[in-house]
Amino acid sequence: MSKVQAFYHKHRTILLLAVFAALCVLPFVVTKALFVRYACNILLFATLAGSLNAINGYSGQMCLGQAGFFAIGAYVCAIFSTRFGVNFWLLLPISGVFAAMVGLLVALPTLKLQGIYLSIVTLGASEIIRIIAQTWEPVTGGALGIKNIPYPWLFGLDTFRPKYYYFIFLLIGVLFLLVTNRVLKSRVGRAWISIREDQIAAKSLGVQTSFYKSLNFMYGAFWAGVVGCAYAPFVNYIEASQFSTDTGFNVLAMIVIGGQGTLLGPILGSMIVTVLTESLRFLDNWRYVIYAVIIIMMMWLRPQGIAGASHSVLAGGKIKRKPVRREGARSHG
Amino acid sequence: MKKFTALLLTVAMLLTLAVVPAMAESKGTIKLGGLAPLTGNYAEYGKGFQIAWQMAIDEINANGGANGYQLSIDVKDTQGDPVVSSTMATSFAEDDEIMAILGDFSSGACKANAPIVDRYGIVQLSPTASAPDYAGMSPYCFSIMGRQDKEAPFLATYVLKKYLGVSKVAVIRVDSDWGMAAFNNFKAQADIEGLEVIEEKYKSDETDFSSIITKVKATDPEVLVVMDQGLPVSAIFNAADSAGWDIQHLALGPGTSEQLLEQLINPDNLIVTSPFFFNPEDATLTAWKDEFNALAGFQPTVHPACAFDTAYLIKTAIEAIGDGEITREAIRDALQNIDMNGLTGHIQFEEAGDITRDYLICGVVDGNWKVLEGFDYSK
Amino acid sequence: MEYLLNQLVNGICQGSIYALMAIGYSVIVGVVGMVTFTYGEIMMIGAFGAFYSFQFFGNNLALAIVMAFASSFLLGIVVYKVCYERFFNAPRHIALLCTIGFSMLMKNLVQIVFGPEQKPMINIINNATYTLRLGSVAVDFKLLQIVVMLLVILFAVSLTLFFNRTRWGVALRAVSQNKQAAYMMGINVKRTAMLGNCIGCGFGGIAGILLSIYYYTVSSTIWGNFSMKAFSASVLGGLVDLRLSALGGLCMGIIENLGITISSATFRDVFSFAFLIVILVIRPQGFAAKKGSRV
User: Beta-strand (E) ranges in A35-185?
Assistant: First the structure.
């Protein structure tokens, strides 16, 4: 494993550029439109899982309500583009900001809570958002939802075809990774990680935990909102039941399986879960049974997920306290 | 080895020669796409679609196909989710071999697919979408269920005012796309007729109706109307019965469902509106019903009967095209001008792409469905 | 006035089922020391166990309740082995995620085995209604509601007796207070924790069947919500105190039903969640006197 990591470090830039180039070419190489649509789903959920990972994996707060922030992003986009004709690209940051504000609202009561209390509050908040979406008819269309959300224009191309919409998701995904990488290496990121590992110790060292925890929630919510905004025109029709707790648990499953506490984890998780979902569609309920078994197995064998941060509290009670060399000491965020 | 290969090739060529004339007889297969909720809350209806479509296609193919063409259908599970439905619709639309799409079940899913079928130019013929604004969304959108802006007003005018002669009505309805359309159309007509309407709505996965019943009972209406399909209908009526509430029950939505009768504490107290009835005296209908029951394991409602008709509609459309090329657009045009008598009655599309149905008033006598008032009641 | 009283009766009846749920949940959290997300599914298994008991053995309510308790009890053993035993000393979130996975597993297995549709369950208890006259107001009590409330009182009382008078009960209380100390007293902590878990689950199963009888249907999809409600009701009791949790459940039932009175049934869950969030913000320990950092 460390040989792979060493190799990765040496040739980092070239490897990432090669992957990026391959991803750009993908929709033109793959012929079946359905598969391009699956690729879009993978990218979409990779970023959404990434946003959840920014909260769960880095500040250690276990948020279960990502579906709520996702919903806000989607509805903001839908409402403003269908009612007021606002440009999609402008709406991306706007949705993010809206979602971040709600994130702050959710964070405030949770600051003094931890563990299960916090998780339940996030879940409750997500459900309240969904129920409001379902009942606030004049704004959200209620049970009817909002339909005919216009497709955005990308460099002069109408993104109605999945293979053009793909690039919107790719763009957002790459942006997310670049920004998050930066943030994690900064003071803010280090503060988050310290809170995750041991909140009391962090506080005693002068880290303003409340401030950073709220910031963390807002950050995760912001990106979930952006993804939601991108999601709305893609499915062309949104309605409250698409943002239920099941969606939230789905995203959670992705980071549990793929890995928490690293940037690669959610991407891997999104790939695995989406591929399993689509290829095993014919199995109906057995599909979920398989997920559930995988989640439980993950908890038993590797709690931080496949590509998760092994040198952290996420890895469970099996942290090895042997002295680590400088090279591998940093958790690669 | 060379000799053996030569021998093998010769045999292969001879076999092909033998088969080719046989193939020239049939004109090939026309593929259809099917969208139905095979899992999820509407699984019962989705499975009904699948079975009815297969029954129709098997029957059509056995009788020489549609103008010589054999039909086949690829049914995909949409889980009752409009987003999944759109994904499947897109994949059908991008597959050039699929000539038309049958389905989906719910108005919500059909409406979500409307822009897709419109862009790609492929027919979406739904057996059961009843939202009045669905078919008008695209020239390629069709439905044969009848519209909620005909059935709901029928309930107000003919059932409540004329048949029962009541003036104060309580409506408990599901808060969904369908429920909203049904109620709004009902209320508009009820206002014209001068009926007083009390409304209570509930979310689609609700199970506890005792509080709603208590609330509605306190307003002292003359009849209780439920607008929904599936288990909540019986749950609400049972809750009313067990609260000791003696009142006439009416339902809009489930039609003459046998499953519903089994779930009710007091089935004889129920009246429904339905565009269709499996008349036990009609031999063809009874035979169809028994065949469906044998294949599915449950009794059919009007929904699979409509699905059956959609397959026959495509067959009739293909025949109307005659010797011309079978394209998606040709099917659409033929469908728009069609005039056919199906299992569920006479089908002729209006300009928007849906049909107007007449409705029956059906009730329960001794645990069996009976027609209380026929189609001419509303003429 | 009469209408409000009737809604109050509805609220008390539903509240008493919630109270039973909350008691079961508190037993688990108190004794095992870990929260669970899979409580709804445990209730579901109880409901299905009783449903099949009705199918095979007829309308015998007592037998059905025993079956409900037994099925959930057995499932509790499985949950304990899979989600709790291994993670006693690990960070809390791991066991939690495990229970989430387990709940997904149970929900879908049940849908596969029993089918996704809801099954009706009628005519278990005679649909009689009794009217109580207090002066000029008449309040209706369904026989069903009376049976439910009596059962809940019966179980709550028997549980209290169990905890205070029997050896097992005392052992359970010891484990819930301090595992190390209990261990040093010679109590088999693992076995006791498992027993506590199973008893809590068993009560959940009974709550499950009572709910199903009350709603006239057995379903596999509605239970996720009840996990949340059980948790909320428990929180009101400070998570570990049984009597206060029961009170919390009762409050929740009443608030929900009264909430529906003033608004619409579509807001039922909003009331529960909003109530929970408000409580957590204002007074995280609920009705309990002192703050205990349980989790």
Answer: 146-147, 153-154, 157-158
Q: Of B374, B376, B359, nearest to B156 (Cα)?
A: B359
Q: Is the pLDDT of residue B14 over 70?
A: no
Compare all CA atoms of chain A with the CA of C29 and give the residue at the minimum distance.
Answer: A116
pLDDT band for C95, please (50, 70, 90 cuts): confident
Q: Look at residue C124 in the predicted model and tell me its pLDDT.
A: 66
Give the residue among B42, B79, B85, B371 at the shortest CA–CA distance from B228: B42
> Could you say which of 1.20.120, 3.40.50, 1.10.890, 1.10.3470 is the CATH number of the domain covering C2-282?
1.10.3470
Residue ranges, chain A, pLDDT below 70:
1, 284, 316-333
Total domain count for chain A? Answer: 2
Residues of B in contact with A236 (CB under 8 A): 86, 112, 115-116
- Nearest-by-CA chain A residue for B78: A281
Residues B230 and B364 in one domain: yes
Residue B171 has pLDDT above 90, yes or no: yes
Across the interface, of B41, B211, B235, the residue whose CB is closest to C10 is: B211
Judged against a pLDDT cut of 60, whether residue B231 lies above it is answered with yes
The set of residues, in sequence order, having a beta carbon less than 8 Å from that of B156 and lying 6+ positions away, is: B186, B189, B190, B192, B193, B195
Q: Which amino acid is at C213?
A: I
CB contacts, 8 Å: C228 with chain B: none
Q: What is the tens place of the pLDDT at every residue in A235-255?
A: 888 888 888 888 888 899 899
Tens digits of per-residue pLDDT, B240-259?
887 778 899 999 988 787 77
B316 and B246 inside one domain: no
Mean pLDDT value of segment C154-159: 85
Q: Of B40 and C104, which is predicted with more confidence?
A: C104
Q: What pLDDT sits at residue B259?
A: 76
Q: DSSP secondary-structure letter at B69?
A: B
A68 and A82 in one domain?
A: yes
pLDDT at res. C46: 93
